Amino acid sequence: VMRLTKPTLFTNIPVTCEERDLPGNLFNQLMKDDPSTVKGAETLMLGEMLTLPQNFGNIFLGETFSSYISVHNDSNQVVKDILVKADLQTSSQRLNLSASSAAVAELKPDCCIDDVIHHEVKEIGTHILVCAVSYTTQTGEKMYFRKFFKFQVLKPLDVKTKFYNAETDEVFLEAQIQNITTSPMFMEKVSLEPSMMYNVAELNTVDTAGESESTFGSRTYLQPMDTRQYLYCLKPKQEFAEKAGVIKGVTVIGKLDIVWKTNLGERGRLQTSQLQRMAPGYGDVRLSLETIPDTVNLEEPFDITCKITNCSERTMDLVLEMCNTNSIHWCGVSGRQLGKLHPSSSLHLALTLLSSVQGLQSVSGLRLTDTFLKRTYEYDDIAQVCVVSSEVKQS
């Protein structure tokens, strides 16, 4: 049994000395004449020739394990009904990897039966390749033997995720991917497959001269023990955006699909399990800002748009009260009746206010009262605006 892998670059041990030593320039000349060394860089250990693997080597989760199996008749007799079976034993299951389950009628002396098996490794830990051969001799005696080949499957990547729930229904996902192997990786693809309720936008590119360019540059190599951060924004689909109760309870966001290549092009792929977030708690009534200016003039009115959503399972009759603060003053009538708001329904409010103090000011002082239960909901620090003098020109 021999594992089928890509060849590796030949490494040599340079032997050299100073010119005043006894060998003189002999060692340097021998290295220059060696066909395996790189011309002009003979003292480097890395050669320009390829060598075949001498052992199973490292096998990582997500890669495809390929092996060549050969059964050779070393005797001078013809054997019959030869059946070759290859199984892969893991900690949880036993898989049959044989390409064919049919027996070979006969095998002459010095002839062999060859088979190539492939398996995408999906578990880490100890794996045992069990090769069993059964045959019948010329005298009719049935013979059987097995050989075991043990190898370890290692974890190639360490993936950590963080979720950020925005004031709107958007969810931001930060994925930290670390290369924990001993060789560089070429990150071919890192994408997020969202759940059925969300659309995803990748935030890992920048527009340069009208073209989209990766934030990691044109060479997306990940060196050993290096970590790279990917960012994604998930927005609810239109048919679910208005269903506040549904979006509120959604914890399953999607799964990451990672594809990489190592050494001479060996391909690996990992797909995480479904990523889950902690569902945000909005309470009975959720207030979010739809529009608000970044910069406003001192003592000049400006408009904001609020969205009020009933996240409870009962109908509410809401009254809006606006309370002034030291810096923020509301324009309009306080105590306004908003009417009935059914479960999972929402309404938009256009409000006007002004600031009497310069600097970064917090919008506060909104109060919603449910007249059915006589319950008041207070909303402070809703957002911040930068207040500047009217003499300063806004850019």
Automatic annotation (TrEMBL):
Residues 293-387 form the Trafficking protein particle complex subunit 13 C-terminal domain. Pfam families: TRAPPC13_C (PF23643), TRAPPC13_M (PF23647), TRAPPC13_N (PF06159). Residues 1-153 form the Trafficking protein particle complex subunit 13 N-terminal domain. Residues 157-280 form the Trafficking protein particle complex subunit 13 middle domain. It comes from the Eukaryota. GO terms for cellular component: TRAPPIII protein complex. InterPro entries: TRAPPC13 (IPR010378), TRAPPC13_C (IPR055428), TRAPPC13_M (IPR055429), TRAPPC13_N (IPR055427). PANTHER family: TRAFFICKING PROTEIN PARTICLE COMPLEX SUBUNIT 13 (PTHR13134). Belongs to the TRAPPC13 family. This is Trafficking protein particle complex subunit 13. The lineage of its organism: Eukaryota, Metazoa, Chordata, Craniata, Vertebrata.
